[in-house]
Amino acid sequence: MELVGLTKENIRKISEIKHEEQWVLDYRLKSYELFKKEAMPSFGPKYEIDFDKVVYYKNEDISDIKDNWNNVDSCVKDEFKSLGVIDSEKYLSGIGVQYESEVIYHNMLEELVKKNVIFTSIEVAMKKYPDLVKKYFGKIVSNADNKFASLNGAVFSGGSFIYIPPNTTLDRPLQSYFRINSRSMGQFERTLIIVDDNSDLHYVEGCTAPTYSDSSLHAAVVEIYVGKNSHCRYTTIQNWAVNVLNLVTKRALVEENGVMEWIDGNIGSRATMKYPACILKGDNSSGTCITISVASKNQQQDSGAKMIHIGKNTTSNIISKSIARNGGNATYRGMVDIKKSATGSKAIVKCDSLILDKKSKSDAYPTNICRTDLSNIEHEATVSRINEDNLFYLMSRGLTEQKATELIVLGFIEKFREELPMEYALELNQLLKRNL
Amino acid sequence: MLKIDKLNVIVKDKKILNDFSIDIKDGEIHAIMGPNGTGKSTLSKVIMGNKNYKIESGKIVFNGDVINDLETDERARRGIFLSMQNPISIEGVQNSEFIKTAINARRNTPIGLYEFIKEITAKASELDLKEDMIHRAINVGASGGERKKNEVLQISLLKPSFIILDELDSGLDVDSLKKVCESLNKYLEENPKTSVLIITHYPRILEYIKPRYVHMMVNGKIVKTGNLTLALEIEKSGYSDTFNISENKVYE
Ligand SMILES: Nc1ncnc2c1ncn2[C@@H]1O[C@H](COP(=O)(O)OP(=O)(O)O)[C@@H](O)[C@H]1O
Ligand SMILES: [Mg+2]
Description:
A: 2 domains, six-stranded parallel beta barrel, B: 252 residues, binds magnesium ion
């Protein structure tokens, strides 16, 4: 079945299909009211969306989430097999797979079950662990935050829920894949991650699965809670098809001594607006965001990071690498806000862009606010064009222009690549080569 | 091997090479000496196909083919190698990764990692090049001498058939120059068909790598050709005097 158009009726239907409790439906309807009031973003890429034409929900037949690929519809299974998703499972502690609007597969190592780790879809979590969900859901990213966060609040479907109990460390990452196949499909997954005190999680989202979708809109919300002394790393490389609008709100709340790291790659989509954020609430907490954006023909990557310092002695680090080529536009947009309370804090922002030809563009819009004399922000930005001398040197040793460019580009984003697990670094190389 | 016929080259509306001609046969070593700014580096870059330099007229023929319009990388794969006067550094691109890619650009099947590492380490130690230079980004933080050694390292691994050495001696101290030249001589012994064009200010390098011909270049063309004696004459009397003496001799 398929639900087209944004109406109260459709929102009620989504809620009904999912057998949701009243509080969830109320949250959806409230979000819808906020959505109607909110204006489109006043900055960044310009695009038109006909909200009446978007498919807000789609599912072939409602069935349970499987934990064995043999029970998954064979066509769907073959598709994920060809994407390498099934083979990659052995590198992971657990895996979740979403097809269109619903999570279809979830599996996790036995030892994690024993450790009381929860890794499931948001819908299941709302039913099985309502108190845990209610405590954090919509608290880190409010449904009034921006128009697309409101939209997600109204029609969210799928996405992961992760709970890491106190004093728990996972040896390998947890991962989710998202895939859409239908035309005009919207995907509105909702992810909530709770890393309780003294714990550690590495979560990888959709990394290796190329998404050849025909979809028009991807508006996800990701909320992360990082408890005291805990560490969370969230790695994404989005490779949406070039007709997808990718408008995502990602935010982490970090408690005392906590560490949040966003590793964020943007290669696909027609337009992306994404600024992963850390709210450094606890004293001595820290946040890092390393992003790369590659914009090619007809692509606008508007990305960056937000660091809000509230606790004392908090530190943040933003590293942004933008590459524009073949008429693309890759823009850094970021904010560091050190509040009056955040004495003894330090923020570093470093954004570099590389422009490969005359048709392409790269801008930087940094906003840095430091409200106390006892803290400071360092900012550094560079713009470079591909240098003819560099190309000549590499080509004079027999490398084609394409290969030489590739080496220079990979060199430019070295800092990002070295943060990726080996398999993803290789996958990223492949993606970049295909896009050069 | 390489034949240049009446080559005229301009850069930014300024004429640099002026009816320049030279003929270098298989296995021959030639040297070009000339004052600063006379167009020696320009010549080497034009042979390598640098697009900043426009050929107005004339021909560059390599192994029987006119290569005026060939891309730089194609020339390199055909066997031309330019050891540059001032090798640049390139941030982020690992030297060994780059050299491996260049080797593979000349092969149908990629070189095995083990074989490559073994070979590059052996050659680097032969040149007294610190091993960490191999794994660093290309020439980043490297001294002038290390950069020149890195050029020669690439020669020994990429195995060109025509080598241009543009002021190889600048940046290298006496001991290093000797070491580097020994390595090059070994390469030339093993590959006797290789031709070399040495561009230099000082005859010192010519004592190590002995040229068959020495050309004197002034204002974008060769004005005199001789053997090692010409090089020593230039060192003693300078370019203008040598040129004048030769002219006098012609008219006497
Ligand atoms: N890219 C360039 N742009 C402008 N002028 C150049 C360029 N390259 C060389 N020249 C000029 O050409 C002349 C010859 O330079 P060069 O070939 O480097 O001389 P040499 O190597 O003999 O010292 C000089 O006058 C130099 O200023
Ligand atoms: Mg020169």
